[in-house]
């Protein structure tokens, strides 16, 4: 899962330590509150019988595109917090739909800070829901979240057939 090579033993130990970090444990513990807050910020989620489904992903996309009709090159702290909540909802939905995988605390690329990502069996790369919501906002990629979920489901199915 390294950028262009397998992780070394030292890197794997560092990543394992990151999973036990107080920052990550605190982030994991906040999930119920973060999801509840996202529902208040995206009222269309509250209208769904189950907001953590493909229609919920569509509601997140629509709300994000409405909130950022013409996004600039940098975001305010409030906008970053909103995108982080959307990413939390996206990741939660992906994990529920897949029934496998987990949140991990990693640095996906050297230029990025350590943060939450998904580790999904069968996928040799981490899935970054934060990048997914940025794709929606900046590239105006309506339908991208459902497409990404279908791809993850296909990978997971392939992995279960192999294993």
UniProtKB/TrEMBL annotation:
Highest taxon in the source lineage: Bacteria
Name the record gives this protein: DUF3806 domain-containing protein
Source taxonomy: Bacteria, Bacillati, Actinomycetota, Actinomycetes, Mycobacteriales
């Amino acid at each position: 899962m390294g950028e262009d090579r397998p992780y070394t033993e030292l890197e794997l130990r560092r990543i394992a330590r990151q999973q036990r970090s107080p920052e990550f444990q605190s982030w994991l513990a906040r999930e119920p509150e973060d999801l509840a807050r996202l529902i208040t910020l995206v009222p269309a989620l509250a209208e769904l019988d189950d907001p953590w489904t493909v229609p919920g992903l569509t509601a997140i996309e629509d709300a994000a595109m409405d909130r950022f009709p013409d996004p600039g090159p940098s975001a305010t702290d409030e906008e970053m917090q909103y995108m982080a909540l959307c990413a939390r909802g996206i990741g939660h939905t992906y994990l529920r739909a897949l029934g496998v995988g987990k949140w991990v605390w990693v640095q996906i690329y050297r230029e990025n800070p350590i943060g939450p990502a998904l580790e999904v069996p069968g996928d040799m790369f981490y899935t970054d829901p934060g990048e997914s919501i940025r794709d929606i906002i900046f590239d105006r990629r309506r339908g991208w979240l459902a497409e990404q979920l279908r791809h993850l489901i296909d990978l997971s199915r392939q992995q279960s057939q192999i294993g």
